[in-house]
Write a structure and sequence with these properties.
This is MetA-pathway of phenol degradation. With 240 residues, the protein is mainly beta. The protein has a single domain, classed as Porin (Beta Barrel). Helix content is 10%, strand content 57%. The strands form two sheets. Strands 1-4-5-6-7-8-9-10-11-12-13-14 form a twelve-stranded antiparallel beta barrel. The longest helix has 23 residues. It starts with a helix and ends with a strand.
């Protein structure tokens, strides 16, 4: 077999396996999982005690449609939440829009299908960000729904910006996060620029059997603005 023939055979195999890889990446992926957390802490704010937080998501070619919820397991007064989000990621760049519904808001009857601007429990939020590898930046802004107000009682278009740095240490996946509210809004109880989220989190898989591991995490969160601190433990249940 001459060199030219070998080259053609190599190219044919490369194309074959390359197409197989592309087809594998083009498959629709479904995520079914749930987190159990000792405390529901969101952007440095305490939203509840022990909570169950399920996720159902469908992804295709960087586009993800996701449903996420949270319900308290020990206190009926804890926040109940149901979110639906549409996200798109390409390379390090991502953007999306989310519809967050809470059991407390402008509607005393807590009706889910009520979107009137002055009597809804929904918050519509847009986000954009970029993952540089050693550091990821994300910006979130409320664009509709039950938003907060400025000092002049106008819609605040409440925003939150976050920087996250992942790293490995001691056999765990770590993540350091700092988050801030850039301007006045009653939504975050911010009378101007505040730092409201400083978090250090460690994730690790605990091996149960040769075929099953339980992902667990622990995180310490401080809110310099409210002067509160929280220590949270959680684990993930995932359908394979």
């Amino acid at each position: 077999m001459n060199i030219e023939m070998k080259k053609y055979i190599f190219i044919a195999f490369a194309c074959l396996f390359g197409n197989a890889t592309i087809q594998a990446q083009d498959k629709v992926e479904t995520t079914v999982e749930a987190d159990v957390v000792s405390q529901y802490i969101w952007r440095g704010m305490d939203l509840g005690h022990v909570s169950l937080q399920p996720t159902l998501a469908v992804s295709y070619r960087g586009l993800t449609l996701e449903a996420w919820g949270s319900v308290g397991l020990t206190d009926s007064n804890d926040t109940r939440e149901f979110d639906v989000a549409l996200k798109y990621t390409t390379g390090g760049f991502n953007f999306g829009i989310g519809d967050y519904w809470f059991n407390e808001g402008l509607d005393p009857q807590n009706r889910y299908f009520r979107y009137n601007a002055h009597s809804t429990n929904h918050v519509i939020e847009a986000n954009v960000g970029y993952d540089f590898g050693p550091l990821a930046l994300q910006w979130y802004t409320n664009i509709a729904g039950n938003d907060g107000f400025t000092c002049c009682d106008h819609r605040a278009y409440s925003s939150y910006v976050e920087a996250t740095a992942p790293f490995k240490l001691g056999g765990c996946q770590w993540q350091a996060t700092i988050g801030a509210v850039p301007f006045y809004t009653t939504f975050y109880d911010a009378e101007g620029f505040i730092i409201n989220n400083v978090t250090l989190r460690a994730d690790r898989d605990i091996k149960i059997t040769d075929h099953f591991s339980l992902p667990v995490f622990a995180q310490i969160t401080g809110n310099p603005s409210s002067e509160h601190a929280y220590f949270v433990f959680g684990f993930k249940l995932k359908a394979f």
